[in-house]
Amino acid sequence: MDTKFLLGENQIPTHWYNVIPDLPGPPAPVLHPGTGKPIGPQDLLPLFPMGLIEQEVSSERWIKIPDPVREALRVWRPSPLFRARRLEAALKTPAKIYYKYEGVSPAGSHKPNTAVPQAYYNKIFGTKRIATETGAGQWGTSMAMASQMFGLECTVYMVKVSFEQKPYRKSMMQLWGAKVIASPSNLTNAGRGILAKDPNNQGSLGIAISEAVEDAATHDDTRYALGSVLNHVCMHQTVIGLEAKEQMKLAGDYPDVVIGCHGGGSNFAGIAFPFVADKSAGKKVRIVAVEPTSCPTLTKGVYAFDYGDTAKMAPIAKMYTLGHDFMPPGIHAGGLRYHGASPLVSQLLHAGVIEARAVPQLASFDAAVQFARTELIIPAPESSHAIRGAIDEALRAKEEGKERTILFNLSGHGHVDMAAYDAYFAGQLEDFEYPAEKVKESLAHLPKVG
Q: Model pTM?
């Protein structure tokens, strides 16, 4: 009985899958933060190279992966697909559980799948430096690595709570040549304004995005890079699901349910979007995004136009949002602490094509520990939410006495996030369900559109 299903390097996807042609209707326009009018390619040039802008607005179903990008991906792709036989046995479930493991990348997560093409398109555009942000550190680490691969400088604004909780993420970024700054900082107008109001601000992805966007917009040789949310980012990640579909064929199986953890939407889109294509073609498959109850964007947010950042410098997009002023608690799954969601993921959820559920922090860590003790891989705190979702599906199959095939994305390992597990075993973690009144207060400040 095979446990892992492997593809050769010649089977790395040759094209990215763009979900837009398979959406239930056209995407909503993206609006300029200053004028409120739909933005065009020229409006995005201060932030992104033209190659990425063209991908952001493309309606082509398949976009060719450039040869230099595909060559760079060969360092770790294709990533393995595992059958979680030990976990299945521990759960005594009739369900079959598979997981796509993205922790094999040098940075330890799925994020290099888009960092590498973003660095490539910036390099050929003439960019000298990348300004970006990071929450838990996976994205900043990946962008630092990709910048090193293509000879770019890199500045990373790291959410302060993660900067303090995860010093080894900072070390990895510096090892790959990046400059790492705790956000909010006193180096930007956005950061200084926030610190003036709250000198002890723990930071958020929305704030860090504001700082990185300001940095890029005020330096001609610098462009901005984002690790989630945007169309081209989600598209780059579809190598995950495209490979997984081929590997499921090797296993002689097909999932009844596909699961990914959800923060901004990148790793969820990566595993899910290729199966959205199957669903739109008539396949029966459930697709589930799992997020933390402390940052319940998809499950408690509203589907509305909102800014992508706290300082209202990023474009306005229609998405599920908790409000750009939303300040999440300092949970250890720092990569999931974002107020908004990918517009593409949001549209699919609003149309009922995908599902969303929220799980508490302690239940997620319980699942991560059970997974580590059976499958032996130590998951990133973010990935533990997908594991929780998969285990719950397997236990439901056990209760119902039904077979079920479950596929989830194990988006990264937790080798440099062990402080989170230390806190868990010391009983220092607690569940936090974001109060409805706080969400309502934040949503009161959405932009007036239309």
A: 0.94
